Amino acid sequence: MHRILVLDNIAQEGLVILDASPNVEYEVRTGLSGEDLRTALNEFDGAILRSGVKITPESLEGNTRMRALVRAGVGTDNIDKPAATRRGIVVMNTPAGNTVSTAEHAFALLLALSRNIPAANQSLVEGRWDRKKYMGTQVAGKTLGIVGMGRIGREVASRAIAFDMKVIAFDPFLTDEQASAIGVKRVATVDEMLPQIDYLTVHTPLTPETKGLISHAQLDKVKPGLRVINAARGGIYDVDALVEGLKSGRLGGVALDVFENEPCTDSPLFGMPNVVCTPHLGASTEEAQTQVAVEGIHLLINYLQTGEIRHSVNVASLDPKTLDELRGFLNVAHRLGLLACQWHGGGIDQVSITYRGEVAGKDTRVVNNAFCAGLLERIVDDANIVNSEMLLRERGIELSEEKHRDKGAFASSITVKVSGGGRSIIVGGAVLGQNMPRLIMLDEYRLESFLDGKLLIFAHKDVPGIIGRVGTVFGTHGINIAQMAVGREGDAPGGSAIGVLNIDGDVPADALAEVEGIDAVTQVKIIDLPKAGELPSWLS
Ligand SMILES: NC(=O)C1=CN([C@@H]2O[C@H](COP(=O)(O)OP(=O)(O)OC[C@H]3O[C@@H](n4cnc5c(N)ncnc54)[C@H](O)[C@@H]3O)[C@@H](O)[C@H]2O)C=CC1
Ligand SMILES: O=C(O)C(=O)COP(=O)(O)O
């Protein structure tokens, strides 16, 4: 049973899907923070939220259960992504569901500013018929500057063009070709547009580059009377600069939907003339809320039930087709990681993964993560395909990847060299049939062995009688050998060799000591792997 926590008010349509989903139960708990939020997050497998909840490192402290956080909306700035990644939690969002509604809200703010609609309404309902005071500005023929030409910025541009405005845009990823196809003029910097525009609207995330995009210094550069709109994130405009600009007349109006600290019920801007503010309503339409809730709930259920990862902001995507194609390989990679950790013994500082054959044509980032999860699982609690690469890098372990499309003996194979502490080992694997993991290489030896359960690996000199002697040790201790594989150096006898036994049950210490005592045996190790068919929780 997957337990889902609904942390914010989301559309009923999303809850209806939860009600109808088998193996899912949910609770709606809004307004949580602090210790209550921390405790709640640890009782559920997934959660869905909007901007009203802050997921901090503290709220994830000690969390061992949560697997996915879904933002029913765009901005994931209220979720501490490094903390979520470290805990192995996928963070996903619904990037397009509220685009049009937010663009419409930004445009509504632009029109409200131009025609003094909120102030005129207030004056009228207070009993004044003041037509002279609320002389407005026509937007047709005026120039709008847009910073951030992503989904919302482009929708705002097309609405402005429909209102006969000229549009100048800045976005580091906007090309001249794209700009002319949309019908806007591209500029190379924000400063370049400031003296030319009558209105400015921003549609970027809050980043070090966009924080304080309009500050005191910009007030000298703007065309006097510039009206500024922000329906993106609080902090992109500096509030003190906005107040100064309004007082000096450098700014003709300010419209804000978003604030640096939300909820915000106290701002020096509130009540000033030519200021229009709304309490973060950009995405608050029935249409947008239905879309983000339905999409968000599907993302959450699909991830928890099938492992499909879409619209993740902290891990590579894994669509159902790729997941199906890679499932067997993820299993092999995870088992090879577990084997490599135990066979190497510690002090690892380098991991080089080589893919050969068909798998080399796929997006293998998630397979790398599966190997790393296995490699770290015995060292770090809860390593999984979301956090393992981050955990690896945090430990100073370098990861590299090579791909060769030509096939070897198998349609697809993965070979990993793990080095450090003066020792290098190699493990290689492949999938037989749909999902039968096989070990096909151990150090320099080729062999074919099951990759499950208990393995006893013994390195030895390739001389007659060794296999029989090892077999006798186990026979006398009443331990069954399920399968045995041997790989040796070159084709001729007499060199070094390696044996891999799949053992049923545990190996007592005295049996192990007897194998170690055989003269030609140079190294013996018992390796613990998941049983056949057993999958890690993130793959089952
Ligand atoms: N008020 C509200 O209720 C809502 C606010 N938003 C916010 O609106 C913003 C934009 O959302 P989308 O258009 O969906 O995102 P998007 O990712 O489609 O577009 C963002 C654009 O900003 C550009 N950008 C990033 N840094 C920039 C910089 N320094 N200068 C210029 N451009 C830069 C990117 O290249 C990208 O094209 C986000 O912050 C989002 O959180 C989104 C939905 C609702
Ligand atoms: O999607 C976004 O980025 C938003 O800002 C919308 O926020 P909300 O879901 O309305 O709290």
From TrEMBL:
Q: In which pathway does it act?
A: Amino-acid biosynthesis; L-serine biosynthesis; L-serine from 3-phospho-D-glycerate: step 1/3
The protein's matches in PROSITE patterns, at most eight in alphabetical order, are given as: ACT, D_2_HYDROXYACID_DH_1
- Name the chemical reaction catalysed here: (2R)-3-phosphoglycerate + NAD(+) = 3-phosphooxypyruvate + NADH + H(+); (R)-2-hydroxyglutarate + NAD(+) = 2-oxoglutarate + NADH + H(+)
Q: Which CDD domains match?
A: ACT_3PGDH-xct, PGDH_4
Looking at the Swiss-Prot or TrEMBL record, what is one Pfam family this protein matches? 2-Hacid_dh
Q: What is its EC number?
A: 1.1.1.95
Keyword line: Amino-acid biosynthesis, NAD, Oxidoreductase, Serine biosynthesis
The UniProt record lists the ACT domain at 455-529
Kindly give the InterPro entries that the UniProt entry links to this protein.
ACT-like_dom_sf (IPR045865), ACT_dom (IPR002912), ASB_dom_sf (IPR029009), D-isomer_2_OHA_DH_cat_dom (IPR006139), D-isomer_DH_CS1 (IPR029752), D-isomer_DH_NAD-bd (IPR006140), NAD(P)-bd_dom_sf (IPR036291), PGDH (IPR006236)
Q: Is the keyword Oxidoreductase in the record?
A: yes
Protein role: Catalyzes the reversible oxidation of 3-phospho-D-glycerate to 3-phosphonooxypyruvate, the first step of the phosphorylated L-serine biosynthesis pathway. Also catalyzes the reversible oxidation of 2-hydroxyglutarate to 2-oxoglutarate.
The text of the family note is: Belongs to the D-isomer specific 2-hydroxyacid dehydrogenase family.
Name this polypeptide is given: D-3-phosphoglycerate dehydrogenase
What lineage, starting at the top, does this entry show? Answer: Bacteria, Pseudomonadati, Planctomycetota, Planctomycetia, Pirellulales
Q: Which gene encodes it?
A: serA
